[in-house]
Design brief:
It is built from five helices and two strands, in the order αααββαα. The protein is mainly alpha-helical.
Length: 136
């Protein structure tokens, strides 16, 4: 069983997204990308509080939501552990797409776009591409 996984939560207080949902979303992203795998331990509430200065109840709320979805399980006295991953894209399929996206992001940055601009543009393209798709 793995020790605490290398996942660090970044909280954006200006995003308009509830803090606990940011933790849920970032955990799901780590599961999709293979950063977190079954058996990995999530950071303790105390570790997250120390790193982000958020309320411990917010962390616990996020972890309860992830547990409700069957993604993690709390083990009394041991921590919260990943039960299953999300995704399913083979690494050999994902690697070339990641390389293309990295190149695109570098071109966007070189063109003067800020991170929020790139995120908004990418989200708009995703939304239009997956419009009506139940799996998006």
């Amino acid at each position: 069983m793995a020790e605490s996984a290398a996942v660090e939560f970044r909280i954006d207080r200006r995003s308009g997204v509830a803090t606990y949902l940011q933790i849920v979303q970032q955990t799901k992203q780590a599961l999709r990308l293979g950063v977190l795998e079954p058996g990995d331990r999530l950071p303790t509430a105390r570790e997250v509080v120390e790193a982000t200065a958020i309320n411990p109840n917010t962390v616990l709320k996020a972890y309860r939501e992830l547990e409700r979805e069957g993604l993690v399980e709390a083990r009394r006295g041991l921590g919260t552990f990943v039960r299953r991953t999300l995704g399913g894209t083979a690494a050999d399929t994902e690697a070339p797409l990641r390389a293309e996206l990295t190149d695109w992001a570098r071109r966007a940055r070189k063109a003067g776009l800020e991170r929020d601009d790139v995120s908004a543009l990418f989200t708009a393209v995703l939304d239009s591409t997956f419009k009506g798709d139940q799996h998006a």
